[in-house]
Structures are given as C-alpha cells and as structure tokens.
Amino acid sequence: MVVMKRKERASALKWFISLGLVVGFVGFLTFHGLELGEAADLSVPGKPLEKAFPNSEKCKRCHLRVFEEWEASAQSRAIVTTPFRVSLDRYLASADTKERGLCFRCHAPHSLDYQHELPRFIKEVQSKDPQIDGVGCPQCHLIKSVDDGSHPPVPQFQLGTTIFGGYEKAAQNLAHQSEKLPLFRQSQFCVTCHERMPESSNTPKSLPDWLGDWKQSKAETSGKPCQSCHMPEALDESANGEKIRKVANHSFPGRFGKVRAEAVQLDFTTTVKGDISEVSVKIDSLVPHNFPLPHPGWSRLVVDLSILGKNLKRVYNEQRFYERVLGGVDGKETVFDFEAKKVLKDTLLKPDESRTEIFTFPTPKDAPSMDVIVTMTYAPLHGPRDFLTQIEQEAPLGSKDRAFQTVQIAHKKVNVSLSK
Ligand code: HEC
Ligand code: HEC
Ligand code: HEC
Ligand code: HEC
Ligand code: HEC
User: Fold this and answer.
1) Domain assignment of residue 147, given as a range
2) What ligand has the least distance to the C-alpha of 232?
3) Whose CA is nearest to atom 3 of ligand 1?
4) What residues pair up with 411 in beta bridges, in sequence order?
C-alpha cells in the first residue's frame, strides 16, 4: 500500500490541477478552432481565404435560424445560378485583363481582399459547385465600413476575430467577439452592392445607377432603411439558446418573397364608348427605389391587359414593359449591362411614382359582358436565342429554372356589363 506523505499529496494535487488546466485550455483552443476555422488565426497576415472568410456552414451550429433563412435567399445563390455563370462567361470573353474581377466585387466580395486568387474564384464558379460562398455570413459581417466616396461604394473588411452587427450588447460566445456598428441598420450598408455597375473600359460612368433617387424617397426620409422592408424584424432566437431577441429576417425577401404584396397599388376604370373601350390603369409604386431594379440588364416588369369576351374567350391582349433598355456597341439593343454604352429607353417605375396607363381596344361584340384583367408580373429572362438556349441546357431544372418563371406582383379582374 502506498502511503503518500502530506507534501507528496499536495504536489500531486497541484499536478492534477495543472493537468486539468492544460486539458481545459487545449479543449478551449480546439473548441475555438472547430467553431470558426481557427478564429485565432484570422488576424495573421496572409491568412488563407478559408480562415478569413469561413464558410457560412461554420456559423450554422449557433445561428441555425439565420442560416436556414439565408440558405433560402437569393444572396446564398450569388455565384451558383446558371444565368450568373453563363453571363459571367460572356463577360470574361471580352473583359479587359485588369477587370476580370468586376462581377465578383458584389457577387463574392472577398475577392476585393484576395485579388490574387481571382483565377481560382473563376474556376470555382465554372465548376458549378463552388466551395467558397459568394455572399455568405462573413462577407457581410466582416464589413467594418463603407467607402462611399466611390461609386459603387467599396466595402472595407476587417479580417479579425470580431463580427460586426446591429446588437447593442451581444452575449459573449467562444467563437467570436461582437461589435455594434450603426452601419448595419443603415441603407448605405446595402447600397454598397446594390448601387450600380462599376465604370470599366467597356461601360461609361455616365450610365445611371440602379436604385434611382432612393435618398429622397418617403421611406428613407422617414427613417426606414432597406433593412426595414428586406430584413423584417421579428422576435426569435438570435443564436441557439439565446434569449428571445429582436432579430432580422435573413431570407432577403425580394422577387420571391412576401414584400411583393406591398409593391404597388393597382386600380383601373373601364369606359365603354360604343365600338371602342378604354381602360385606365393607375399604378402607385410603394417601392422607394426604381422598380424593377435594372440589373441584370434583362430585368423587367410586365403590365398585361387581357379582355375576355363571349364564353370567356380572350379577345384582346396588350403588354407594356417597365425596364431600362440598353444600347451596346453600334447602339444595338443589349440585355448585357456590362457592355452597355447608353440607355435607349427607361420605363422603370421611379421611387414612389404614380403612373397611369391608358389602353384602348375594340369592345367585344355579341357579349353581355366582358372581363377586364390587369396583371403585373416580373417577366421571365429574355435575351438572345443562343444565350437562352445555353441557360436552358445548363440549368439543372432546364426550362423550369426560376429565371424562366414569371412572378406575379398584382392582379385585378372586373366584370363590365355591355348590355345597354
Ligand atoms: C455593384 C455590384 C454588382 C456588380 C458589379 C455585379 N452585380 Fe450582378 N447582381 C448584383 C445584385 C445586387 C443583384 C441582385 C439584383 C436584384 O435582384 O435587384 C445581382 C444580380 C445578378 C443576376 C441575376 C441573379 C442571378 O444570379 O441569376 C445576374 C445574372 C448577375 N447579377 C450577373 C452579373 C454579372 C455577369 C456581373 C459582371 C459583369 C455582375 N452581375 C456584376 C450586384 C452586382
Ligand atoms: C447581405 C448581408 C448579410 C448577410 C449575407 C448575412 N447577414 Fe446577418 N445581418 C446583416 C445585417 C444588415 C444585420 C442587421 C439587421 C438589423 O438589425 O436590422 C444582420 C444581423 C444579424 C444577426 C443579429 C440579428 C438576428 O437576426 O439574429 C445575426 C446573429 C446575424 N446577422 C448572423 C448572420 C449569419 C449567421 C449569416 C449567414 C448565415 C448572416 N448573418 C448573413 C447582414 C447580413
Ligand atoms: C459558438 C457559437 C457561435 C458561432 C460558431 C458563431 N456565433 Fe455568432 N453569436 C453567438 C452568440 C451567443 C451571439 C450573441 C447573441 C445575442 O446576444 O443575442 C452571437 C452574435 C452574433 C452576431 C450579432 C453581433 C452584433 O454585434 O450585432 C452576429 C452578426 C453573428 N453572431 C454572426 C456570426 C457569424 C457570421 C458566424 C460565423 C462566421 C458566427 N456568428 C458564429 C454564437 C456563435
Ligand atoms: C456584399 C454585397 C451585398 C450586400 C452588402 C448586400 N447585398 Fe443584396 N444581393 C447581393 C447579390 C449579389 C444579390 C443577387 C444574388 C443572386 O441572385 O445572384 C443580392 C440579392 C438581394 C435581394 C434579392 C433580390 C431579388 O431579385 O429577389 C434582396 C432583396 C437584397 N439583396 C437586399 C439586400 C439588403 C436589404 C441589403 C442590406 C442589408 C443587401 N442586400 C446587402 C449582394 C449584396
Ligand atoms: C418601404 C419598403 C422598402 C424599402 C425601404 C426598400 N425596398 Fe427594395 N423593394 C421593396 C418592394 C415592395 C420591392 C418589390 C417587390 C419585391 O421584389 O420584393 C422591392 C424590391 C427590391 C429588390 C428586388 C427586386 C428588383 O426589383 O430587382 C431589391 C434587390 C431591393 N428591393 C433592394 C433594396 C435596397 C438596396 C434598398 C435600400 C436602398 C431597398 N430595397 C429599400 C420595398 C422596399
């Protein structure tokens, strides 16, 4: 039987305590590392991209709700859609060597700090299964400030262990430090990537921006930034296990989200003047920026008038487009804004604009009444035949790709009596 002297016991105890501390410390380091791609390395100069901008999967464990919302959003698809890949190829085919990163500055903004890795980013996109996110969590939450002296503004990243956000007192956690920045509740944060195509040797600076005069809009001047509509507030968990907080929806509702229901107020009146009828459609845009936004260049809305006569047969149809039509070399129309030299036509709804459209058509004959139907939709992708064919061939869902879908914004149907 081994009898320990008092002194020996004390030193064994000390040893055990220090072993415990060491094990604990190593455990802490491992935890730290596993959680966030060795967070401690982030501030080392020349750090690999994967450590500076960890994959959004790394944030998922603690921010499951946010992750799932983001995963369903357009932002998570920033470099994986077929239209993006195909139009990137078109752009690269003619781009100046120094400007090959143009699309990435917004679709994968880590490229700004890792310009020497551009060939790899391009290859990743072309592989159809990029391992690096385009607009993932760190691509937004490492933005420390925005240089709005240039247009489009340039995000300034701080690549350390601090995550920036909008919370007053974020709870401490083992993965990252948190710092509140007013920027995260300001439109300027979003405008960084939503403002305009950068000037390049192909496209002149004089082209108008995408958003229009959003600064003077009712929303902006009454203190409602982009986030108030596109990151709607709710009460939920901020991080798994954290108390119920005011959180911000990360599905970025846009073309496919609920925000659409609040885009316009659409009303019309019908006047029958004998053989000719007239429909006067009033469209009040509730959108505090251009609608639709004209990037990519094929974006457009359709206002469709359909008249159903006897036996609900469609007897008249007319469509008007809200879009920015661009002219490329030789003034020829192009849907590729990266080759635009000038604007040929601009029918975008301006911020908060009210517009009236007058349609005239022959009054349906031999019918007791007619149905007047006005629909406003986001139009499907359009452009040169070979471009559409390539997208259809390469898209996993073919002609069912979401780019080919029309998305309804507003719809109204009225039955008008024709009997005297
Ligand atoms: C200034 C930032 C910025 C630049 C530069 C930029 N984009 Fe975009 N892009 C966006 C934003 C923001 C959207 C979402 C626009 C919307 O829905 O209103 C978008 C949407 C798109 C879409 C439609 C969505 C999709 O993924 O199918 C395509 C295609 C696209 N961009 C291609 C390009 C190409 C190609 C380039 C380079 C020639 C480029 N973009 C350059 C910011 C940018
Ligand atoms: C396009 C930029 C953008 C992307 C991408 C983004 N965020 Fe955010 N996030 C924001 C902004 C802006 C706020 C502040 C919103 C506010 O307070 O109105 C925010 C707020 C938050 C908050 C606090 C509020 C809440 O909803 O819990 C957390 C946590 C968060 N983001 C985590 C993430 C994670 C995790 C990801 C990736 C899955 C992510 N974010 C992707 C811009 C972004
Ligand atoms: C170990 C768990 C954990 C991981 C991993 C983690 N976070 Fe957090 N994060 C938290 C906790 C806890 C909070 C505090 C929540 C609160 O106070 O309500 C938080 C807060 C935040 C906030 C709000 C900060 C502020 O000041 O507004 C943002 C943004 C955020 N995290 C983004 C991220 C991103 C991006 C990643 C991945 C790169 C990530 N988090 C990884 C646990 C984690
Ligand atoms: C780092 C660049 C970047 C920042 C910052 C950014 N976005 Fe985006 N956003 C994009 C890109 C790129 C797309 C298009 C993704 C795609 O479909 O290819 C997009 C798509 C969207 C869409 C969906 C558009 C549609 O057609 O449905 C909305 C809405 C949106 N962003 C709102 C915001 C808001 C609000 C903010 C500020 C909180 C913001 N974005 C900040 C790059 C950015
Ligand atoms: C008052 C609410 C409101 C505010 C504030 C707002 N938007 Fe919108 N936005 C809308 C509505 C409504 C639509 C049209 C329906 C849709 O696509 O969701 C829209 C559409 C969009 C789209 C996608 C559709 C398109 O037309 O291509 C993007 C991207 C977008 N907004 C970005 C922004 C940015 C950036 C800001 C800040 C400068 C902003 N929005 C401010 C309401 C708002």
Assistant:
1) 49-196+208-248
2) 2
3) 106
4) 375
Atom 21, ligand 1: residue with shortest CA distance: 296
pTM attached to this predicted model: 0.92
Residue 104: its pLDDT value, please? 97
Local mean pLDDT, 10-residue blocks, the chain (420 residues): 43 44 37 38 67 96 97 97 98 94 97 95 96 97 93 94 94 95 97 95 91 97 97 94 92 90 96 97 98 98 97 97 96 96 97 98 95 98 97 97 96 93
> Is 36 touching ligand 3 by the criterion CB < 6 Å?
yes
Q: Do 244 and 262 fall within a single domain? A: no
Q: Are 348 and 387 in contact (CB under 8 A)?
A: no
pLDDT of residue 45: 56
CA of 71 to the centre of ligand 3 (A): 17
Do 298 and 182 fall within a single domain?
no
Q: 327 pairs with which residues across the strands? A: 333, 342
For residues 269 and 333, membership in a common domain is answered with: yes
One domain, residues 278 and 348: yes
What pLDDT is stored for residue 288 in this prediction? 98
Does 157 contact ligand 4 (Cβ within 6 A)? no
Q: Point out the ligand nearest to the CA of residue 335.
A: 1
Number of domains observed in the structure of the chain = 2
- The pLDDT assigned to 398 comes to 97
Q: Is the residue at 317 inside a domain?
A: yes
Q: Whose CA is nearest to atom 12 of ligand 3?
A: 173
User: Is the minimum distance from the CB of 293 to ligand 1 under 6 angstroms?
Assistant: yes
Residue 193's nearest CA partner among 152, 248, 149 is 152
The verdict on residue 3 lying in a domain is: no
122 SS3 class: helix
Q: Cα separation of 361 and 276, whole Å?
A: 6
Residues 151 and 125 in one domain: yes
Whether 139 and 53 have beta carbons less than 8 Å apart is answered as yes
